[in-house]
Each structure stands twice: as C-alpha cells, then as structure tokens.
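Give me the fold.
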Amino acid sequence: MGSIDSKTEEIIFRAARKVFTRKGFDGARMQEIADEAGINKALLHYYFRNKDKLFDRVFRDVVKSTLPQLIGIMNSDMPLFDKIRTFTSTYIDILSGNPEFAGFVFHELSRNPYRLLESLKESGPNLRVLENQIKEAALSGKIEYIPVTHLVVNMMSLIALPFIAQPVIMGMFSMNPEDFDAFIRERKELVPQTIIHSIIKRP
C-alpha cells in the first residue's frame, strides 16, 4: 500500500508541476491538477490539503533543480572569466531544457519573494568567494572593479530575460522556434563576452 501511495503522490506532483509552471499559482486550479493527474479532486486533497502546500513543494523542487549547479559554480575557485562563461552556459542550458521555469520563478517572485529567499538561506551561494575574486582581479589590473551585486545581477538579467520575454522577442523579430533556439545558442557566447568586455581593464 505504501508503494502505491508513493506512486500516486508522485503522479500528482508531476501533474502539479506541469500546471503550475504553465499557469503560475494564481492561474492554476486544483481541479485542473486533478484532471492532469487522472484522479478525482477528493484524492488530490487527501494527499495535498490545499493548493498553497502543493505549490510550495513544486516551487522548492523547481528551485532545487536549478540552484545546486549554479551555486556550485559560484562557490568554486575557477578563474573569474571561466566562472562567468561556465555560469552563463550552464544557466542557459538549464533554462533551455525547462523553458517555462524562468517565467514561472519570475512571476512567483513578484507574488511571494520569500519562498526563494528561504531556499537561498538554506543553501545559497557564498558570494564572498566571487567578491574576493573580483577584488583580486581589480587589484592586479586585470579588470575594472565592479561590485559583486552588479556583476551577478547583470549576468542573471542577460541570461534570464530572453526566456521570460520569449513570446515578445519571437513576435518582435518574426522568429520561429528554431530561430529562437539559434538565438539562445548565440547568447551562450555573446553574454559572457559582453560581461567580460564591460569589466576588463583597458590601457
């Protein structure tokens, strides 16, 4: 009986993740999640008493599926420019494989930012590592000093925005899905080049 319960719970969870990432918390309905899972609404409420509890688990799972790899890169001792390139490439790969996630997280951050903040408190990046690298590179004359806050936000913005604004970008530039994929592949090279060019020390 336990294995059956576990299997049913996992089916519900996968269905909820699909509906929530597509519609967000406000747009999702428990009946729609039950239909997606192929169960009745009463059974859904038996496993998850309310939408908020189910959403909280889905949100934490979405965050945990992306954060560990990125945090590992941020906390590593790889050279600064390599870190920028690796972070960009990895984050773009994650979002390319899960195209709804950027919009999903962005929408929910505006609705309830504390969910992500709680996750970051549990296992967030050690930004002192990156900050020390920036200071060392600036002191050696390799880069112009930039506060760690601005560097991280610059990277996150340049990477995530195209996924959040994908329909607008595709419409504005008459892109089909293949065109957009090619555009994103180009950004794996362009974004780190742009970031590095903006901070590199010039004679």
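The chain is about 80% helix and 0% strand.
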